[in-house]
Amino acid sequence: MNDFYIDPKRQNKERILGLFFQHDALSKPQIAELTGFSLPTINGHMKDLENMGMIGPGELMDSSGGRPAISYRLQPRSKLALGAEIRKDFIKICLCDLKGEVVKLWNIGVEYKNEKAYSVKLNSLLKEAISTCGYPLDNILGIGISIQGVVSKDGTEIIFSKILDTSELDIDVIRKDISIPVRLCHDVKTAALAELWHNRKVSNGIYIALSEHLGGALIKSRCIEHGRSGYAGSWDHITYSTKGKLCYCGRRGCIDTYCNFATLFDGESIPDFFFKLREEKSKSHEERWRKYLSTIAFGLYQTWLILERRIILGGDLSMWLIPDDVAFIENEIINRSTFTCKPGFVIKSRVEHHASAIGAALPYLAEEIPEYVRPIESWSTYCKPETVEF
Ligand SMILES: [Zn+2]
C-alpha cells in the first residue's frame, strides 16, 4: 500500500462524522439522503462512531408518517484539549471541546518569574487541571502553552521573548509526568487561530492584538504565515519615530511604545478609562484614545500597503471597541492610502475573551475533525508549509 492509498471505508466514516459538525441532529434516513450511502453502511459506521464516543443517540425526530427515527448528535466533549496562556501576573487555562467552546476555565494569579520554580509550578497546575476537570485523560488530546514571544514552528523552542524573559522556562519540566503532547506557541498566532476557527469568512488577513503590548499574525489561505524564522506579522516594531521611547525590543520609537497599555492607560484601569471616555465624555481621554487609534492606523497602513488583506482587530481591547473606533481606524488608513480602498476591510474580532488560550488548544482538536469540515489546520500544518530558503 502506498502513501496515496485512500481507505474508502475510512473516507465514508469521515463523511458521516463531518455531517455532525454541520447539523445539530441527524437521523440515519437523513444521513442516507445526504450521502447516498445504504442503511447497512450507515449502521456500521454509526456504530463505530458511537463506540468511539463521538456521536450519541438523542430524541426521536418528527416524522411525516411512519415510525419516528432516532436522532444522533455530536458528543463534543468526547475529545478535549487544554490551552494555557502565560502572562506577567496570571496563568489562564482553558479546556476546549470539539466545537471550540470553552468547557472549563481556570484563572490563576501567579506572578511570572524567570526561574525553574515557575516551570515546576506550571507543570503542577496543568496536572491539577487534568485531574480535576472531570474528564478522563484519554479524552484530552494535548496542551498548547501560549507565551508572549515567538516560538519555533514545532513548538519546542522560544526564539524571541523580551516582554517576559523566558530563558529559564523549561518545556521538559513543564511536561514532566504529563503523558499527552505539550507544546509552546506564540500568543498572537494562537489568538488568530481562535478567530479563524470561529470566523469562516476570513481567508486572508492580518490579525492585530491590541493588548498590553501590540502584536500581529498573518493569515494566508486560512493558515498562519510563519515567515523564515517566525517573525512574520510583527508590525508592532515598525518605527514611528527614531527619537521615541526605548522599546522592550531594544530599539527606539517602535509603534508599541506609543500604543502599549502603560502609555494608553497611564496607570488607570481599563474599565475606568472607558467609563471616563464613553460615559463621562472626558476630553482628555477622548484625545488620548484618538491619538492611540490614529497611531495604530499609521502602523497598519504600512502593512496594508504591502499585503492589502482584511485587518482583524483583536486582543484584550477588542471587547471595548465600538463600531466608531473600527471606522475611525479604517478611515485613517483610507485617507493615507495612495490607492482607492473599498471600505469594510477593517473588522473587529469575533473571539473577544481568552482568544490566546483557546487558540492554543484548538489545533489538537482540529486533527479529530474530518478535513472537509475542519475549521483550522492541526499543529502539523497550521503554518503554511514553505519553500526552504537559504
Ligand atoms: Zn520594538
Spatial arrangement of strands, main beta sheet: 6-5-4-7-10
- Global structural class: alpha/beta
Global mean pLDDT: 93
Tell me the CATH architecture of the largest domain: 2-Layer Sandwich
Total of DSSP H or I helical runs spanning 4+ residues: 12
Distance between the termini: 35 Å
Question: What order do the SSEs take from the amino end to the carboxyl end, as H and E?
Answer: HEHHEEEEEHEEEHEHEEEHHHHEHEH
Alpha carbon gyration radius:
23 Å
The shape, in one word, is globular
Please identify the top-level CATH class of the largest domain.
Alpha Beta
Largest β sheet strand count, sense and barrel closure: 5 strands, mixed
At CATH level 3, the topology of the largest domain is Nucleotidyltransferase, domain 5
3D structure, described in words:
Helix content is 36%, strand content 19%. The chain has 390 residues and is an alpha/beta fold. The protein folds into three domains: 8-60 and 70-74, Winged helix-like DNA-binding domain superfamily/Winged helix DNA-binding domain (Arc Repressor Mutant, subunit A); 80-192 and 354-381, ATPase, nucleotide binding domain (Nucleotidyltransferase, domain 5); 203-348, 2-Layer Sandwich (Nucleotidyltransferase, domain 5). α11 (323-336) links the parallel β14 and β15. α6 (187-198) crosses α12 (355-366), α9 crosses α10 and α10 (283-307) crosses α11. The chain is globular and about 75 Å long.
